[in-house]
């Protein structure tokens, strides 16, 4: 377990580094308009890919560790082959739907380009169960390699494909990378993969569908929100440069949000142990502590977006993306709401209340669509960014209110840490941007500790709680 965890941490560090290079190289190479087209098709393709999973990944993750140890080789081959065949079938169906839908709506894009993007999604539907199979054998290190190989492969082959044949070459490079990853996954499956067993069996598929479909609605709502911004901007502005602006903005926000999600994932088992043991007072204290620490980190990121975007965006992404600067500033504020929204989702798992997650996710999606359809025609991608920020805020209020109704939590410390950030957003014009960011961050953190909203001891205890949890399960 600890070996897998160490490998996953190394993989995540590599992903961050490669992701930064990708964010610098690909947008600058393509420019705002072509990157807007590429990002739009990528986001729509990803949504259709998620539409095809039917909760199978969650079912495999939950059921494989229990079933695999008792299977003989023939049973393993049937299980693996049936799952792979079913996911390929759903991929072909959804890929065909993707081509028909996108070619009808985006008539300015070549159909062959749309077909190539569909090919990426179809191959990916087979990649996903191939690597999830490794989780069932306690090989999380191998499972994580799919993401690293994909990111590294895209970084190398997409620029080559774009130089060779523009967007079609870049899309074809995506198909090539997915095929390479699939080949590696099948090699790792070893004797468990038998091409003769590639057929759908009800006794394998139906139990997974019954289990996974419960997660499907919440995942679909969340993915619709995450991958709809570029589509909305394209439909309402018909300007691919604006699509590129919102694509860059959303990618930066999601990268920052992923950090908080990792924090929540790390402490969820610890909080679940408190809940299972009936230690509700400790659960409330730790939840408030987590809220406050996460808000402190989010506020620092918000300061960076507020003070540094003007200087960083053109240097990192290229001068053609300067128009994304206001979007990044407004979504910096959205991180503060995102902390609360993600924490509410975490606590819905701890308290075993999935309905809270589904309702807050639905509120976020509906709010975003209503507000963006009003603001985007008037303000372009900035209107979509404002809609994202407001939708996140609404979802945070809905989620936290439901958590409070289910189990009262002391949120005063979180609110104080949020209010303490407000004065530090008013340094613009008084000093250089870098100095303003440094002063705001240092001043805010000092305020947090001087006012004893958060104590160093509490941060140290949180780290120990996570570390000892890993240590405790090292024998698994």
| Spatial separation of the terminal alpha carbons | 7 Å
Order of helices and strands: HHHHHHHHHHHHHHH
Low-confidence stretches: 1-5, 467-476
Would you report the number of β strands?
Answer: 0
As an assembly, this protein is single chain
* Overall outline: globular
Major β-sheet annotation: none
Tell me the number of structural domains.
2
Write structural notes for this entry.
The protein has 476 residues and is mostly helical. It has 2 domains: 2-213, no CATH class; 228-472, no CATH class. 84% of the residues lie in helices and 0% in strands. α2 (56-67) packs parallel to α4 and α8 (240-276) crosses α15. Residues 1-5 and 467-476 have low confidence and may be disordered.
Layout of strands and helices, then pairs:
Blueprint: H1 2-51, H2 56-67, H3 73-105, H4 111-135, H5 140-189, H6 202-226, H7 229-237, H8 240-276, H9 280-317, H10 325-350, H11 354-379, H12 381-406, H13 412-419, H14 433-450, H15 456-472
Helix pairs in contact: 1-3, 1-4, 1-5, 1-8, 2-4, 2-6, 3-4, 4-5, 6-11, 7-8, 7-11, 7-12, 8-9, 8-10, 8-12, 8-15, 9-10, 9-13, 9-14, 10-11, 10-12, 11-12
In short:
With 476 residues, this protein is mostly helical. The chain contains 15 helices and no strands.
Provide the descriptors you would attach to this structure in a database record.
476 residues, mainly alpha, 2 domains, 15 helices, 84% helix
